[in-house]
Amino acid sequence: MEVTQVVPNSVRYPVPFPYAFPAGALFLGVDKQVDYDRIKEADNQARDENGVLLWVVTIIDQDPQAAKFGRSPQAKVKIAAPQQPVPPPAVEVAGMSIRPVAFVDLTVTPYSDSSGCKGDRTPHRCRARLAWSYRASAMVAPSEIPATAKAA
């Protein structure tokens, strides 16, 4: 009997930060990732496969194509760290403070987002799409991205 190899659902593909966010990203906030199986517990923060706390960094993708077709340019990047990640210092631009960020060891996991699928309607209007889940090992200033990631 022949055994067929299947790609696991949680496969993570390494992606250079400039490839995933070619126009850069702006920091919006960071919060704990909630483990909804433990929602009633005092410590309900999710942990990765090694038991390290998971944090969710919310960013705005500065690529104009990110907001195309009415989509939100917001993205979330998960970081496993013992303490809450700290964003890089703010930069003053035209009298406003913004925080450009980059991510080290960025990986993506593709998944099917079927939240827009309304299968019970006639005619059937499915707006399911391919979506990406991002993970990284650290959040840094864009100037701190390793040279190998910039060249990729």
Feature tags:
about 150 residues; mainly beta; eight-stranded mixed β-sheet; two-stranded antiparallel sheet; 2 helices; about 5% helix; globular
Describe this structure in words.
- By secondary structure, this protein is mainly beta.
- The chain has helices spanning 17-20, 147-151, and strands spanning 13-14, 25-32, 54-61, 74-80, 91-93, 96-98, 100-104, 107-113, 117-118, 125-126, 129-136, 138-140.
- The strands form 3 sheets. The protein has an 8-stranded mixed beta sheet, with no helix packed on it. A two-stranded antiparallel ribbon has the order 5-6. It has a two-stranded antiparallel sheet with strand order 9-10.
- Strand 5 and strand 6 (96-98) form a beta hairpin.
- The mean pLDDT is 85.
Q: Main β-sheet: number of strands, strand sense, barrel status?
A: 8 strands, mixed
- The beta-strand count equals 12
Q: Estimate the strand proportion.
A: 35-45%
SSE succession:
EHEEEEEEEEEEEH
**Percent helix:** under 10%
Number of helices: 2
- Give Rg in angstroms: 18 Å
Low-confidence stretches: none
Distance between the amino and carboxyl termini? 42 Å
**Strand order within the widest sheet?**
1-8-11-4-3-2-7-12
Query: Overall 3D geometry?
Result: globular
Structural class label? mainly beta
What is the mean pLDDT? 85
Short description:
The protein is mostly beta strands.
SSE inventory with pairings:
Layout: E1 13-14, H1 17-20, E2 25-32, E3 54-61, E4 74-80, E5 91-93, E6 96-98, E7 100-104, E8 107-113, E9 117-118, E10 125-126, E11 129-136, E12 138-140, H2 147-151
Parallel strand pairs: 4-11
Antiparallel strand pairs: 1-8, 2-3, 2-7, 3-4, 5-6, 7-12, 8-11, 9-10
